[in-house]
Amino acid sequence: MSVVRVAAAVLQRADGQVLLAERPVGKPWEGWWEFPGGKIESGETPYHALVRELREELGIEVEKAYPWLLRRFEYPDRSVELHFFIVRGWRHDPHGCEGQQLSWQHPAALTVGPMLPANAPILAALGLPSMYAVSNAVELGEQRFLERLQRALDQGLRLLQLREKHLSLESLERLAEQVLTLAQPYQARVLLNGEPETARALGMAGVHLSSERLMALPERPHDMLCAASCHDAQQLARAQSLALDFAVLSPVLPTLSHPQARVLGWEGFSTLVQGSSLPVYALGGLQKAHMEQAWQHGAHGIAMMRGAWD
Ligand SMILES: Nc1nc2c([nH]c(=O)n2[C@@H]2O[C@H](COP(=O)(O)OP(=O)(O)OP(=O)(O)O)[C@@H](O)[C@H]2O)c(=O)[nH]1
């Protein structure tokens, strides 16, 4: 079966809502909802197809579009390869130039549907925020870390990795309880860097695997979020084949926590994440101000340890 290559756009407003379109009468899957976009013509790059499709379908001019995920899916009559972009800047108000109905929607609470079957993991990925903070109680001291965590939650942090490898199980339990108590009113999700069973026992939303654990794990846990640390193509491929929720790729820049590690640089990062079916956070020596650069290089967002608590 030949592969249909498609450019698809997640137009995202500052409030997080994304634009969905209903497939018009007469097309395959009519009445189903999708992200605006269409087939990549021969000789076109995915980006150029995106710009053309959004002009033709929505009457907008793309100003800021970032490469995001590649999703392969088998329909009964065709295989599709969907090149998703996140579009954060455009000129003119989108309207359905082909008579299609449009709707701005919160990815986690759609009020239109059904969505095309290929798109379920895309909606899940859109539920992940741009920033992923990694705890640093060992350097800050627990009290100061908890104060900084409270401040970060107030400022919008919604995803956190508790990574305190030096602690005994008893001390970890105590700290985890305090962290979860702070995170709960914000519905912020906390992942434990460790084993799935420990994460489950501590009531965490998920587990974050070390790269070593990632390579050894036969199957991902299905009752919680599951993410992993990756440093090369082989580990990223493993994270994709286990269908994890997301990966973290590091170190992008030199970092104090891993002074010996070979730095990827932004170009190395972007080469590795190109074509990823999973959202990938950039990590290593980053500050909040690196967000735009991370998006330009194909990252879902940035992960930070020291930078998250400044
Ligand atoms: N634009 C878009 N297409 C998607 C999404 N998800 C998804 O599976 N697709 C698939 O990607 C293909 C998009 O091609 P298209 O919209 O230009 O073509 P089409 O179905 O109208 O078919 P036709 O032009 O051959 O009649 C379709 O097979 C569609 O089912 C999505 O979110 N947006």
UniProtKB/TrEMBL annotation:
Superkingdom of the source species: Bacteria
EC number: 3.6.1.55
Reaction it catalyzes: 8-oxo-GTP + H2O = 8-oxo-GMP + diphosphate + H(+); 8-oxo-dGTP + H2O = 8-oxo-dGMP + diphosphate + H(+)
Keyword Nucleotide-binding: no
Entries under InterPro entries matching the protein: Aldolase_TIM, Mutator_MutT, MutT-like, Nudix_hydrolase, NUDIX_hydrolase-like_dom_sf, NUDIX_hydrolase_CS, NUDIX_hydrolase_dom, ThiamineP_synth_sf
Tagged with keyword Hydrolase: yes
Entry keywords, A to Z: DNA damage, DNA repair, DNA replication, Hydrolase, Magnesium, Metal-binding, Mutator protein
Binding-site list for 8-oxo-dGTP: 23, 34-37, 119
Binding site for Mg(2+): 37, 57
Molecular function per GO: 8-oxo-7,8-dihydrodeoxyguanosine triphosphate pyrophosphatase activity; 8-oxo-7,8-dihydroguanosine triphosphate pyrophosphatase activity; 8-oxo-dGDP phosphatase activity; 8-oxo-GDP phosphatase activity; metal ion binding
Location of the Nudix hydrolase domain: 1-130
Cofactor list: Mg(2+)
GO biological process terms on file: DNA repair; DNA replication; thiamine biosynthetic process
Family, per entry: Belongs to the Nudix hydrolase family.
Protein name stated in the entry: 8-oxo-dGTP diphosphatase
Native organism: Methylobacillus flagellatus (strain ATCC 51484 / DSM 6875 / VKM B-1610 / KT)
Lineage of the organism: Bacteria, Pseudomonadati, Pseudomonadota, Betaproteobacteria, Nitrosomonadales
